[in-house]
Amino acid sequence: KPEAIYGFDSIAISTPATNVDAIWLCEAAAGIQNHICCHGFLVRGSIVTGNLYHSGNTIFGPAMADAVELDKSGSPPVIVVADETLKSFTDGASDQDKEIGKIREYQLIARDDSSFPYIDSFWLTKRHTNQKSIPQSTRVNIECWRTLIETGLRNRDPRIRQKYTWMAKRFNLCLCSKVSAIRRIAVEEEGE
Known about the structure:
Blueprint: E1 3-6, E2 11-14, H1 19-37, E3 45-47, E4 53-55, E5 58-60, H2 62-71, E6 79-81, H3 83-89, H4 95-108, E7 109-110, E8 118-119, H5 123-126, H6 136-153, H7 158-175
Parallel strand pairs: 3-6
Antiparallel strand pairs: 1-2, 4-5, 7-8
Helix pairs in contact: 1-3, 1-4, 6-7
């Protein structure tokens, strides 16, 4: 069963290394990412597969060090997913389990614009963008992301603005120019 512990600025969730648990963990991370964006924060981190001891408030092991190291990759503000974790997506007991793992990986994981695969923060929302009528909860989520990104784009620090520029481009790519006609976020390139 999953165990979780949180500290000042981090959350650690551990599960057994099965395909069902790897998929669940990535879905949970996407959900956390979406909820936290509504409070005005971007989330970055990593999901790894490895040896770990986790019981109550005690957690340690090589997987923790691997997660910290992967998060230092300098990636955009995303949750990076280690190759070992992605391998466990398709490590199912049956052909049907393996096929479901491939489908979930396709839905949950993005590989563009980053040196590592990462949780697609817009995966929950993308499924509604090809519909003329978008559910209210999805509209609220889209507006949370828009507010967060547009606020970040006004930051005076170019390093911070660069992160939000990346997020704005990803937002536009994933959610705009679809049947639903979601308004694009205006992006100024550095130096304009």
